[in-house]
Write the structure tokens for this entry.
Amino acid sequence: MGTRKKRRAVVDAGACVACGCCAKVCPVSAIEVWRGIRAVVNGEVCVGCGRCERECPASVIELQEVQP
Amino acid sequence: MKKRWYDYLWIVELTYLALGFFNILFAWLGLLFFFIPLIISAVRGTKGYCNHYCGRGQVFGLLGGRFGLSRKKDIPKWMRSKWFRYGFLIFFFIMFFQMLWNTYLVFAGVQDLRQAVTLLWTFKLPWHWAYHGTLLHPGVAQFAFGFYSVMLTSTVLGLVTMVLFKPRSWCVYCPMGTMTQLICKARGGKG
């Protein structure tokens, strides 16, 4: 049986503009803007749906596969 | 997702832009869009304004998202670079102070009131229909014309990048966004 690898959103912290567009679309509130500086992902909660990746106006979020 | 009251602030932004067509003095209200984000970042150390209350961002989000007026392509890397973001902030500052200087000249009586809105720092659009005289000094109106020029110019730039790239591409190089992020950084991440 094939298993889909778990994915999660990863933010390029240095390039993040902290606009918060990602947090607005996250269905599980796994991403938030930390102290007005950058977006931070809660890896425990992120389901890797990719909505933040599509939304990010600076395109600094990408989905990466995580090792189980 | 449940809508909050601040999800409707796009109405405030559109109303603001519309009012400038009827009476330019309403442009003064735009100072709120400058001071509120600065105060939030300085006092609370967050970009709460960008994150929740920015009506302009919501307008771009709606037009580019729900109305499908955006190509939804990635913004070029150079446009999200620190060079461009900080460079645009400095350029914006210079143009803003030039506008303040012009206002000062009218207050000082050196220059006459120019009833025009300058788009993209270049094109002078006649705007006399939105000025009906004022009991106050003409300098008050000059500031309104200048400030509305700033607001309209940034809206037009934002609309262009909304169409070309992702809906809220303006947020990447918005001078207020860059400035509030810098303030938050200067606070050393202390919330």
The first helix of chain B runs from residue 10 to 22. Strands of chain B lie at 116-119, 123-126. The interface with chain A takes residues 1, 41, 45-48, 50-52, 57, 61, 72, 74-75, 80, 85, 165-172, 177-178, 180-181, 183-185, 187, 189-191 of chain B (CB under 8 Å).
